[in-house]
Amino acid sequence: MVNVDTVYQRVLALANKEQRGYITPQEFNLFANQAQMDIFEQYFYDINQRERVPGNKDSYADISTLLEEKIDIFLKQATVSGHGSEKNIFGIPSDYYKLSEFSYKNPEGTYVEVERLTYKQFNLVKISPLTAPTLHRPIYYQKANKIIMSPDNSFTGFSVTDGKIMYIRKPIKVNWTYVIVGDKAMYNSSAADSSHFDLHPSEETKLVIKILALAGITLKDPALYQIAATEDTKSIQQEKQ
Fold first, then answer.
1. Which of 51, 101, 104, 173 has its CA 20 to 30 A from that of 81?
2. pLDDT of 68-126, one tens digit each?
3. Torsion region of 220: left, alpha or beta (phi above 0 gives left; psi -120 to 50 gives alpha)
4. Which residues does residue 140 pair with via DSSP β-bridges, in sequence order?
5. What span, in angstroms and rounded, lies between the C-alpha atoms of 43 and 13?
6. What are the pLDDT digits (tens) for 150-190?
7. Is residue 33 helix, strand or coil?
8. Segment (H or E) for 139
9. Does 32 share its domain with 149?
């Protein structure tokens, strides 16, 4: 977690509102959520790239390990149920971002991991006598927020009622809440809808830089945008070395 008020105060101080304009709480919240999603989505591109690079024997210096630690914050497990008579179709929680694993309870009462395929692969495997799925070797594909598994209701012995999934959830929405005191907006941490950044603490500086870059565009300040963009590029280069 990164404290939302700490980031807000740093952004205001660096933007120098007397010379460059004022960043309102509403603008900050928009920039903050955009910056958070940019950083979050970059994790998956970075970890894919780092997997091609040999790891460091010291885990604290291994970038892949650090990336996985940041992603693990968002890892969740949930039980999912079949839809009525369509017991082979499972709904995915609305907060999911990426599906990691799916298992279902077989007739013996134990959970079996299901192999994920593309829609095209799924249909090809089903029609082949040699690769056709069974209750002990099931397959699935994902369609929007649903899991479609085979075997289905037409298969003898099919009795699936529930399954388990491991998934990566979306970050919680950031919200810097405030009250007006005099002519100033003051941070109100006790508000019910107040929420901090849902990222690893090490991302604080990167959040400030990204929000400043977005603020520079809104304030029509090329200098502010350029400074923030340069720092962001420098940070990315250091991580990829």
1. 173
2. 899 999 999 999 887 767 788 899 999 999 999 999 887 777 888 999 999 999 999 98
3. left
4. 116, 149
5. 28
6. 987 777 666 666 889 999 999 999 999 999 998 888 999 99
7. helix
8. strand 139-143
9. no
Same domain flag for 165 and 84: yes
Q: Are 99 and 142 in contact (CB under 8 A)?
A: yes
On whether both 90 and 54 belong to a single domain, the answer is: no
The answer to whether 169 touches 76, Cβ cutoff 8 Å, is: yes
Q: Would you say 200 and 69 are in contact if contact means Cβ atoms under 8 Å apart? A: yes
Q: Domain total for the chain?
A: 2
Q: Which domain holds residue 12?
A: 4-71+172-240
Phi, psi of 35 (to 5 degrees): -65, -40
Tokens of 241: 């070395």
Do residues 19 and 41 both lie within one domain? yes
Are both 59 and 123 inside the same structural domain?
no
pTM above 0.85, yes or no: no
R_g of the chain, CA atoms, integer Å: 23
> What single-letter amino acid sits at 7?
V
